[in-house]
From TrEMBL:
Protein keywords: Heme, Iron, Membrane, Metal-binding, Signal, Transmembrane, Transmembrane helix
Top-level lineage group: Eukaryota
This protein's GO CC annotations: membrane
Pfam families tied to this protein: Cyt-b5 (PF00173), DOMON (PF03351)
Designated name of the protein: Cytochrome b5-like heme steroid binding domain containing protein
Annotated source species: Stylonychia lemnae (Ciliate)
Transmembrane segments: 178-196, 208-231, 243-262, 282-300, 312-331
Amino acid sequence: MIKSLRTCAVTLLLFFTQQLYGADYSYTRDVFSFDVIMQSNDTAIFVFTVPNKMYFCIGFGNSMSSVDMLLVQANGVSSLAYDLWSVNHNTPKTDSIQNIDYQFEANTTHVKFYVTRKIATGDTSQDYKIDLHQSYGTFSMKLPFAKLIQNITINGTKGNITESIVGAEDEAKKFFQIHGWILWGAWGIFGFIQLLTTRYFKQIRWSIWIHIISGWLILLATFIMSLLAIAREEWEVKHDFHTILGTIVLAYVGFVNISGFITKQKWLKKLPMRDIHKFSGFLIIIISQVAIISGVFSYSEQFLEEDERSPLGIVQIVIFFFFWIALEIRYQFMIRSKVSSSDRYRLVTMKEFNRLIQEGRKLVILDDLIIDVAKYIFDHPGGPQVLDGNIGRDISKFFYGGYQYENFSGKQDNHAHSDSANLVVASLTIGRLEKNYSKEYQTQLIQDQITAGEQTRTFVFQGNTIRQGLQTFYKDIQMIGKHFLVYNTRNLKAKRHYTICNCLLPEAYSEYLRVIEEFTEEPSKSLLFNEKLINEVAKNRIPLTIKNYKQPRGLSQMIHTEKAGEKYMIKGPLGKGLEIHFSGVHLAFTAGTGCLVFLDLVAHLIRKNLDLLDKEENEMLSNTNFKFIFYLSFPNRQQAIGLALCEGLEKITKAKGKNNFELRVRLSNESKEQWNETFITQQIQNNPGIKRVWVCGPPKMNETFDKTLQKEEKGGRLPKASFEIM
């Protein structure tokens, strides 16, 4: 007897049929029927009539996600019925608990199934009631024929019926194959390229652009394939490990790319975006490799039999990390086994270096190394302008993060270059500058003395053995302006250059003040200078005058606050020096500690004008045609460095009737004079016969002078290659 459906929790959702043999088959004679008979208030009998070699399936729910289903497969006496569970639009799985009983009657053409099933099995997560206006009558459905419509693919089964539904490779399997291979290419191949271009092979041409392009390809592939996979799940994120990990990668990869873009554009300078991008990049590559192997496991579990499980995930992760570890070992070995530049490169004189620059070579100097940057300018992560704007110059202060090149745009920041950058430098180096000493030397702090205020002091660093190049006096004036590289092994990132300024060695400084004072009191008196202080023998100590900029973890802060005995590594002398000409006008514009670069030249002129030089030294500069005009700027007289020497030289020069020195002092608390473009241009025009112009001050001052002097050079008012931004 047919009972009422009443408020049955059954919603007939799906009917899909297909003949199992051949796509081009007429369905007009295939007759299906489907009836539901209520056996009791909680049990229904589903009656199906299905042609042989066909199947019929219905689902209970309002979508294909989390739906209980019934499937009957007509195969004569071997016919079967299944209780299925549909997770999504993919082929449903056989339910772990079969909540059905069934019987069937088979003849030569059709099979009639009687499937008994509880109305509420407890399986479905989408139960809801359907209110019926009528509570009597029968409910039956028949499909008299089905016509195959072109371009519609329906997944079916064929062959022997087993405990699971076995069919031809379906659309879901194909999708996840494509999904897996594309994302493996993105993170397995392009992810490895990211590592190569950002750490191990930065020196190759276009490495930065390869890094950027591959990064955006990874982003594109991840977004497209991940969103397509989520869409297949009706925009629901499953709670399995691979889906969760993939969702993390999807969200994280956007952040990594955006942080890289911000780093490239020099935005958000107050945040360490370069470090954030670097750390997040390494982290997402590791996460992505785990996502790859979990994806292979998920695919194998869903689509492959136990004996068909793919080992590709394990193979991928083993190969990936094997090569990563091998490259890192090679990288660390190369860093630690760098051969000293003095053993690898030929010596180049300053004369030869300047000639190569005049011939158009794109050369820069880093410590003692001469680097050809022609092929690397446009690959430089900081932009081509940093290298292109410093051709022929010493770039060491930028390399170690002491200075920034652009100071008004707000896009540049100080950047201490990494070991990877050192490998790039090694690949571009063509020679070593003469009169440079590249061997590192361990010293300890033994003495300090206030030079100008509490924040500027002269420190003496002393080693255990005598070292060539380490001297407290250099007779050759071409050593003036060279510098030492100093760092503490407890903070390898804080490396700074401090200029040679031997006249501020406490005993030497006192001697210069003594002869100045004696000359001032009695100009006609014959003076002697302590010969021990102008002895050019190699020593084991060096004086360096250092201002404390009070930067947390900064080297100057460390030197000023550490006790005597603290160990420091020094390397030098290094750099171009001032390249002082025998004759002609030489201008130096300095602010603050920038004056230190030129105080040894002041000391040389003190002894020259007092006739205290030997013949060799005296002939280094013209007695009649050399002139040094020294522009000094300090906040006030209390913070002035070496001013007593400069004013002493000025007195001596005037008293002796010489014309080789002029002093121009600007004290900010006494003068409002601005060193702007107009001022700079006037000084160039007022001093004909200029051979050299030096600028050494804060970054913004340096940049202002650089731009103005370039205009003067292009306008023909300043000789080419005559100015240097120290």
